[in-house]
């Protein structure tokens, strides 16, 4: 059961749209130009689902034909979308396409590719004033070992005084190992993802995965 990997895991609805887009994204023959196009379409769907996980409240409106009770989320200016640079920037832009009024934060963390465990190092973090009172949407397309994500969340909590229960971590693909790492360190953080893959390989890449998301998206 996926719930055993993390207590606050939300899987996006498995629509045909996601299935078609992910087949294109996973395909190693997909060109860089096509990868970006399919990725943006998929990330926009993810952004909608992730933003909808913040608290909602009933709201009464009037349609052209009569009254209606719907729901609304928080004021977008009370949400800070935080990207883990560089891959997270791609997802951040999709979030801003969906809701342009969100505030923006940046965290730069790099993995040591020469380290077999791919341990991360924090280089930089910049948040808007009052971030400790905001909802946080942390953006990074891939959750592999969980090292970068837990370091980013730890930075938000310890340096910027953010409540872990107000953080949603949005990503495209999770590995079970990353989910377990997150459950151990930050079980209160909600994770919204499209798919949970099988495992990590010996190089700490997600299998079957789609390769290096940042390299494929930015064509580097």
From TrEMBL:
Gene3D superfamilies from the UniProt entry: 3.40.50.2020
Keyword rRNA processing found: no
EC number of this enzyme: 2.4.2.9
N-terminal signal peptide: none
A GO molecular function held by the record: uracil phosphoribosyltransferase activity
Phosphoribosyltransferase domain: residues covered: 16-220
Key words of the record: Allosteric enzyme, Glycosyltransferase, GTP-binding, Nucleotide-binding, Transferase
SUPFAM superfamilies xrefs: PRTase-like
GO aspect biological process, one term: pyrimidine-containing compound salvage
Cofactor: Mg(2+)
Metabolic or biological pathway: Pyrimidine metabolism; UMP biosynthesis via salvage pathway; UMP from uracil: step 1/1
Record-stated family: Belongs to the UPRTase family.
Name of protein: uracil phosphoribosyltransferase
Organism: Cylindrotheca closterium
């Amino acid at each position: 059961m996926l719930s055993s990997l993390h207590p606050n895991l939300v899987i996006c609805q498995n629509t045909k749209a996601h299935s078609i887009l992910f087949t294109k994204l996973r395909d190693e023959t997909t060109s860089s130009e096509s990868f970006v196009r399919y990725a943006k379409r998929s990330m926009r769907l993810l952004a909608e689902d992730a933003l909808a996980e913040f608290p909602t409240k009933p709201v009464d409106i009037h349609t052209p034909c009569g009254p209606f009770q719907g729901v609304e989320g928080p004021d977008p200016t009370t949400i800070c979308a935080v990207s883990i640079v560089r891959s997270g920037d791609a997802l951040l832009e999709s979030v801003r396409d969906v809701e342009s009024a969100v505030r923006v934060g940046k965290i730069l963390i790099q993995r040591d590719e020469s380290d077999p465990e791919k341990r991360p190092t924090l280089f930089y973090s910049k948040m808007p004033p009052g971030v400790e009172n905001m909802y946080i949407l942390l953006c990074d397309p891939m959750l592999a070992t969980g090292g970068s994500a837990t370091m980013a969340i730890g930075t938000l909590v310890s340096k910027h005084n953010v409540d872990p229960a107000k953080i949603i971590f949005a990503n495209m693909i999770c590995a079970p190992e990353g989910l377990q790492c997150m459950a151990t360190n930050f079980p209160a953080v909600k994770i919204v993802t499209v798919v949970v893959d099988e495992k990590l390989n010996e190089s700490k890449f997600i299998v079957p995965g789609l390769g290096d998301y940042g390299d494929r998206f930015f064509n580097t």
